[in-house]
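Continuing the series of single-chain predictions for the mutant panel. This is the parent chain; the variants come on the following pages.
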Amino acid sequence: MSAPVLTITDSARDKILEVRAAESSDEELALFVEVSGQQDGAYTYTMDLRPTSDAKPDDVVQHHDDLPVVIRADSVEKLTGATLDFTGAGMVMQNPNKPAPPSVEPPWSDAADTELTSEVAREIVAVLEEQINPAIAAHGGRADLVAVEPPVAYLVLSGGCQGCGLASVTLSQGIEVAIVEAVPEIERIVDVTDHASGVNPYFESAKK
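Parent structure:
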């Protein structure tokens, strides 16, 4: 016998049966489980008691002793290997499956130079390699050009600059000034770094 899509613990089953007993025609009701969306990197769920006859042909129907459980067809893959438990905090779905992170559209348009083959891109890269990166390397940082759409250049900061609380100061007072002065076509720098994932930002307190 194949393993169930969704495991129901004894405590969860007992609680569901207790709720079902308060309903009329309790023997005809099944627990319907469906993934309803996602929030904070995890799935959200809809669970309710309805007649088993409401199940559609593609839904998966499991039987946990005298409790039928109906898993909606479009939620089967997302719930495979999950466990429904009942604790002091209520019903808890322990699901090893996570929704795919939402795709993030880049802030530049399709017309931007992302191959960095234009003369403007080469001039910016030269400023970064000759002036900026040697200076911030002492702080464990690095700046790289990822796209150009004059009058805007898009940079990613890495190393010690990623996640650093002073990254915006470094960008506006150092990198942006140097690039704008050297490349007349550029008027503004946009930082597209994922600073939230920086794990070891550089910081050194002033020596007294």
